[in-house]
Structures are given as C-alpha cells and as structure tokens.
TrEMBL record:
DNA-binding is among the record's keywords: yes
Keywords of this entry: DNA-binding
GO molecular function, one term: nuclease activity
Region (Disordered): 284-315
InterPro entries assigned to the protein according to its UniProt record, in alphabetical order: E3-bd_dom_sf, ERCC4_domain, Lsr2_DNA-bd, Restrct_endonuc-II-like
GO biological process terms on file: DNA metabolic process
Record carries keyword DNA-binding: yes
Pfam family, one: Lsr2_DNA-bd
Lineage: Bacteria, Bacillati, Actinomycetota, Actinomycetes, Propionibacteriales
Residue ranges annotated for the ERCC4 domain, each copy included: 127-207
Name of protein: ERCC4 domain-containing protein
Length: 353
C-alpha cells in the first residue's frame, strides 16, 4: 500500500513534462507525469505515465489524506506550507486532460471544464419533481426548468436519475422552520434527507430573523438548528434571505447534485484506468524539509507508567503495598517507588546469579 506522495525525475529524454508524481490512491497508487513538481503560480498540466523501476526520487512527503470526490482527487500533505492541492480530470476540445491546481492557482475546480452560464451546469433544461403535498409550489418561471408532480420520499423538490431520487431540497419559511423544530419533527425530516446522495434544507428568510422571534425563545431555535446540523452534517440548512433567492439556490443545487451523481461512475472508471505499478519493497529516502512532514514518535522513558518492556504499574503497586511503602490506590506512580522496585529486583537478580 502506497502511503506517501512521491516526486521523481521523468526518465524520458526531451520530455516537456520532466517530473513523475505518484498519488497514494488505491492499493498501487496513481502515476502521472507533470510539468512542475508543485502548482505554485499556475495550474500544472499532467498526463498518464508509468513508474520506472529505477526512479530517481526527488521528494517524498507523508500524506494526511488523498480522496477522490467525483471527477477530482483532493490531496493533503503532512507539511506546513504547500500542503493542499487538487487533481481535476476534465476534457478540453473533446480530449481528456488532467490539471493539478491549488486554491491560489484556481478559484474553483470545475471538473467538466464548462464556463458559467445562466443555465445550471450547462443544461438546456432541468427536470424537477415537486412533491405532491407541496402547497403553493415554486414555478421557476425565469429558469429553464420542466416541472412534474409526484410523491417524494423526502423533501419538496427533487431530481431523478434512472427513476431514483438522487437529490432533494426541503423548503421552509421561517415560521414553518420554527414549528417543525420545536414540534420535534425536524430530526425525522433530516434523517430522511440524509439517506439521499444529496439533500439540503433551504429557508426563505435571513438567519438574523431567528433572534427577532417573539412567540418562541430565539435561543431555543438557534441551539436546535446547531444540534440538527451537528447530527446531520451531510444536510446543510441554508438561509437564502428571500423566496426568490431560495428558488434560485434550489435550482442550482439540484442541477449541481445531478451533475455530481451522473459524473461519479464515469469519473471512477477514468481514475481506475490510470496506470499504476507496485513499488519494490525498498526503503526510499525521505527528503522533507527540517521541521516539516510527519513527526516521529519519541521513545518513552523506561520508568513511565504504561511503557513497554517493563513491569506494569499494577505489579509495582502490588509490590509496594506488600513492602509497606506508601502508594496510592490509583494514578501515576511516584518515581521513588519505581526506583525502589527496580533496585530490589536488580539486587534479587544478582543474588540469584
């Protein structure tokens, strides 16, 4: 299992991508050749590659996390600076392209490489299903939306993929939110939404209005919202300020959720197709800068409580009690008690010899 981020020299002569990088994703890792060893000033173009048997390692850094999310791979390294980056699998003019970027070199990762438009996710139209129990439903009249009605398992507005509900939004006015929260129904509602791949609650008001409530204590509502969000972190509760903004946010959230769901399987197939080669079982040099990277565990002193290679505190405590030495029933043993135990047993060993 590859567990470090590796950078090596590309052995191909005259290559415009002089570096090889190895990501610890999967049992064998993913290998790419890159124009730079790190995206410092601009996005770095990458291409599929193979790891040579005699790779010249120029950097090896411990990895905190390496996770695929849709058409992107998020990499976090165990060092103080230049530690967060992202690999985005996209298409440029119909051809596959891989870009390595950081927050400084890209304001937002767009895995499909589409520029922002008035449409959501570049779709000509979005098919939204409105729950049959929803009263006074949004019309999305200014947006490219096709509406239909059906009974939804959770939420008021949803999108389907192959007949399966993959994203849903529960719409609330502030009064409805307060009633649902204080009436004890909010947790059941959030539990149903959390079972979906993507879900959210959108409120047609500002969060500051919570503290202007008069029929119920504002603190009760604020703490109840915080508890619900902590228990169900996958279901955000979004205050959209107005009805029109709530409608707009729901439209774009559902479109983005549907895009993410549809791209997941295709992205997984593309990432699995990236070449990987098992590393030989050898110890490679670690070239992290001083003070950076994974901290080495310091050996514990021999007389510390719970240290390995010596008697347990319970053994020493039982011996001290038998010898009449003052010792507490629990807690850390005093150094002089441990020293007395060691001295007594060392003397016994010498006599036995």
């Amino acid at each position: 299992m590859v567990d470090d981020f590796l950078v090596a020299r590309n052995p191909e002569p005259g290559s415009t991508l002089p570096f090889l990088i190895r990501l610890p994703l999967g049992p064998s890792g993913i290998v790419l050749k890159a124009r730079e060893a790190w995206p410092r000033t601009a996005k770095v173009y990458c291409h599929r590659a193979e790891w040579p048997d005699d790779a010249e390692i120029v950097e090896r850094t411990a990895v905190r996390s390496c996770v695929r999310r849709g058409a992107a791979i998020d990499l976090v390294l165990e060092r103080g600076r230049e530690n967060r980056s992202q690999f985005v699998l996209t298409h440029v003019k119909g051809r596959e392209a891989i870009f390595w970027q950081t927050a400084r070199t890209a304001k937002q990762a767009r895995p499909q490489g589409r520029p922002p438009t008035a449409r959501a996710g570049g779709r000509e139209s979005l098919d939204i299903v409105v729950d049959s129990h929803e009263r006074y439903a949004w019309k999305f009249s200014t947006l490219p939306v096709t509406l239909s009605k059906a009974a939804l398992a959770a939420g008021d507005y949803g999108v389907l993929a192959d007949g399966v509900l993959v994203a849903s939004v529960e719409r609330k006015s502030l009064a409805d939110l307060v009633s649902t929260l204080t009436g004890g129904k909010m947790r059941y509602l959030l539990a149903a939404l959390a079972a979906l791949p993507h879900a959210a609650v959108v409120v047609e008001d500002r969060y500051s209005k919570v503290f202007s409530l008069t029929q119920v204590r504002p603190l009760v509502v604020a703490e109840g919202l915080a508890e619900c969000q902590a228990r169900f972190p996958s279901v955000p509760i979004f205050f959209a300020e107005t009805r029109a903004l709530a409608e707009q946010w729901t439209f774009r959230f559902l479109a983005a959720s549907l895009d993410e769901f549809e791209n997941e399987s295709a992205a997984a197939a593309r990432i699995e197709a990236l070449p990987s080669v098992e590393l030989p079982n050898i110890e490679l040099p670690r070239l992290d800068a001083p003070g950076r990277g994974r901290r080495r565990a310091q050996p514990r002193s021999g007389n510390s409580e719970g240290s390995t290679g010596g008697p347990s505190p319970a053994v020493i405590r039982a011996w001290a009690m038998a010898e009449g030495l003052p010792v507490a029933d629990r807690g850390r043993l005093r150094p002089e008690t441990v020293a007395a135990y060691q001295a007594a047993h060392e003397a016994g060993s010498e006599q036995g010899a």
